[in-house]
Amino acid sequence: MKLEKSFVFKKLKTDLEEKYGEKKAASIFRYANAQLKKLESSEPDADKTSRSYVFPAVAIYRAIEHYFPGKALEITRNYGTETGLRMKKVFRRMTALPGVPTLMWKNMDRISGKLSSGYDCKNVTVTEHLCSMDVVSCPLYEKAKELGTPEAVQMICCMDKEYMNGFRGIDYTRTKSVAEGDDCCDYRLRDSRDKKMTGAEKLMAKKGTIKAELDRQTPRSDALWQKATARLNEIQDKYGALPKGLQPHTDRIFPAAAIYLTIKDELGEKTAFSVIENAAITGCAGIARKLEKLMKVPGMSSLFVSMWDPMTKKIFGPGNGFKNVFYPKKKGEYRMDIVSCPYWRYMTDLGCPELTKIFCDNDERVYGNLPGLKFERTGTLGKGAKRCDFYLRKVQTKD
Q1: 325 and 387 in contact (C-beta within 8 Å)?
Q2: Could you tell me if 235 and 199 are in contact, meaning their C-beta atoms sit under 8 angstroms apart?
């Protein structure tokens, strides 16, 4: 087999031509084809999977590494992701026919059995609406490791992570990969037609602003969203039942952390932070516009300031996981400090304290420009201060 004729690998040559020029791409593929021929000759009785996937992946990896030392993993993983996304569209069209999702789930036990043949699996579960398994040993990875180039299989893993999201009627989640150093490949397939949603799925369904921003920044948003949902489920399991007053805050903290950490792992901290921050800016802008209109109603600014004392004690008080300093009331103004905050506490515990700053800035985004009012703050816990100070007071408006 020549790599230029392989359905899975042939487009890599075009990608390399665009990036490095025709001459260099031709040299890489000549080297890769020579490597492939050598592998096939050394194991004429190799199984079909090795000959179709492992041998080509190893040959390509070695060729790229030969011409661009240290770049093979990045180049092959990126190609794997791009190929997976193309294949996703194909599977999407194939499973668009009426009745296909129903047929798949009706035969999921047979399908999963066939797909896992040759793999060492544990925790296998197949029900009417769920199929899950942990692959603890992958023959593709074992073969590549035997050939001395285990990293090559990550290209195939990247394909798998994307194209599996193309099947209609299936919500697919996978957060681990043996080839990437994890203890297993955790496959989770759920019937998307089943309307029973988990707690994590319900929370994620309310984060449409973040999802829209993620869609804007990457074509991989659907796969990342599913991974984040699985991560949120793990976070919820970690903390278990929480006090009723704290839950409205953790319902904001935990999904944001799960989404941020998932994107950070895949696309880097800068992209992850911008997705959450841009979504926050968009969401707060809508709230601020409504409050601005409300504050223009005669007497509303005075009423708004007077409401802050009962409102903050109900939403941001000790019963909600906060520790506060409440100052004596004064007409036309309100002051409070927060000296312990669940946003800072949980974000830090989850490994993303930097995310707290976004929630700190949300107060200024919402209250910072309200007509007839002045919101003042000197620091927050999330930005390194010893307290978050809230000071809201009435001011004279200019006619």
Answers
A1: yes
A2: no
Q: What is the pTM of this model?
A: 0.59
- Mean pLDDT along residues 82-88: 92
How much is the average pLDDT of 227-255? 92
Q: What is the mean pLDDT of residues 161-170?
A: 90
Q: Does residue 394 register a pLDDT over 70?
A: yes
As a whole number, the mean pLDDT across the chain is 91
In the chain the domains, ranked by start, together with CATH numbers, are 3-196 (3.30.1380), 291-394 (no CATH)
**pLDDT reported for residue 120:** 92
